[in-house]
């Protein structure tokens, strides 16, 4: 039998040893020198990523297959062995001051782009409005609309939605999830919060359309920033889908969400997540697509359990998002004639390349390691 002292040593030894080695494992566990060396190497990786992205954006002709092959070769190595190199900035590794930083820039660069481009890319159906989050393909969906329906059905079950619930959608996009759930439950009430003016205008249009469930008096819209959110009502359920990649402070956000809940209320958060020791981001998406965007590691939500505690969680394989991105890219390419003359604040050819790089880059990344490193996380939480 091993002596207790030796047992303790065996447990500690690998960690103590790893602490001095840059790049591998949890960067928060590194000695000062290993930490600095890792950060230095991260800057070099950032520079290479930006050089590849910006050459493509500037017009270097690279077939999609070559881009995908490049990402498929490099990314599994980073995800599996050197995840700390995927944390491009210090702020990715800690909580920010505000709940969400730079929200107005985010609206300008991303969510308030011409809706005539975004809506057909995301799919704009009679019941499934544009939904800018992962569809669920693993249950046999034949197309994007069906995948999005399957995803919302799956959330209804996990959240245990009851007819009569009063629900808040925190970052409600175009109102797709509220519209679909209202269509299924005649006595559910929904409040949607969103900072994007043009997405709110889309919902205001639907609120005037008798065919839309948003036109019932069971839907209330708040155009505003989640940093300043306040409601008179308390909610039985709060859901937030695809929003927490814009939230940099889980502690304060969960305190705020807990204050909006009824006594026995539940919160359901659906986010992009990575099964790596630390949160990650990308210098390309930070500059061109989602300023201040970050992907929380799978354990981040349950470990911020001061005001809300996680009672159940699910990892959803990234292949579902890989297929969703492939459908968005196909729609984007198919609509070139309709979207090429809209105002993007930059020359269209450049814009098209930025967006094709984004859709290929993220789409490919969700498929690496067979979708087991980079996927979506869902968390069911209650008040502590
Ligand atoms: C990725 S989209 C997801 C939308 C929707 N939940 C869905 O699944 O289709 C993120 C949403 O969060 C909203 N959002 C981002 N930052 C916000 C902020 N600071 N305040 C309010 N809404 C915000 C965006 O406008 C957008 O509607």
From TrEMBL:
Keywords assigned by UniProt, alphabetized: Methyltransferase, Transferase
Pfam families in UniProt: CMAS
UniProt cross-references to SUPFAM superfamilies, sorted A to Z: S-adenosyl-L-methionine-dependent methyltransferases
GO biological process, any: methylation
GO molecular function: methyltransferase activity
Gene3D superfamilies (alphabetical): Vaccinia Virus protein VP39
Name of the featured protein: Methyltransferase domain-containing protein
Organism whose genome encodes this protein: Myxacorys almedinensis A
């Amino acid at each position: 039998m091993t002596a207790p002292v030796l047992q303790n040593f065996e447990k500690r030894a690998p960690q103590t040893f790893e602490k001095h080695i840059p790049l591998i494992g949890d960067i928060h566990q590194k000695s000062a020198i290993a930490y600095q060396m890792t950060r230095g190497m991260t800057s070099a990786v950032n520079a290479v990523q930006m050089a590849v992205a910006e050459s493509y954006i500037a017009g270097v002709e690279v077939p999609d297959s070559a881009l995908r092959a490049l990402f498929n070769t490099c990314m599994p190595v980073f995800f599996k062995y050197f995840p700390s190199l995927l944390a491009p900035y210090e702020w990715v590794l800690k909580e920010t001051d505000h709940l969400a930083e730079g929200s107005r820039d985010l609206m300008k660069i991303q969510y308030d782009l011409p809706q005539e481009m975004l809506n057909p890319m995301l799919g704009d159906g009679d019941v499934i409005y544009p939904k800018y989050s992962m569809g669920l393909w693993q249950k046999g969906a034949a197309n994007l609309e069906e995948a999005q329906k399957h995803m919302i059905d799956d959330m209804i079950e996990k959240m245990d939605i009851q007819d009569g619930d009063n629900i808040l959608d925190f970052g409600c996009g175009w109102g797709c999830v509220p519209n679909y759930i209202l269509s299924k439950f005649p006595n559910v009430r929904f409040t949607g919060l969103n900072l994007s003016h043009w997405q709110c205008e889309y919902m205001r249009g639907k609120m005037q359309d008798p065919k839309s469930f948003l036109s019932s008096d069971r839907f209330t819209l708040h155009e505003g920033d989640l940093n300043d959110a306040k409601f008179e009502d308390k909610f039985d359920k709060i859901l937030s889908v695809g929003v927490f990649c814009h939230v940099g402070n889980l502690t304060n956000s969960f305190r705020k969400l807990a204050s909006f809940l009824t006594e026995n209320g539940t919160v359901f958060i659906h986010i992009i997540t990575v099964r790596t020791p630390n949160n990650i981001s990308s210098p390309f998406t930070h500059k061109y697509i989602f300023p201040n965007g970050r992907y929380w590691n799978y354990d981040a939500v349950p470990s911020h359990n001061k005001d809300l505690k996680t009672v159940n969680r699910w990892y959803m394989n990234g292949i579902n998002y890989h297929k969703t991105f492939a459908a968005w890219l196909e729609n984007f390419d198919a609509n070139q004639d309709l979207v090429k003359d809209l105002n993007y604040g930059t020359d269209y050819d450049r814009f098209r390349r930025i967006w094709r790089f984004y859709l290929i880059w993220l789409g490919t990344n969700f498929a690496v390691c067979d979708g087991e490193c980079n996927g979506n996380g869902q968390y069911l939480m209650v008040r502590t």
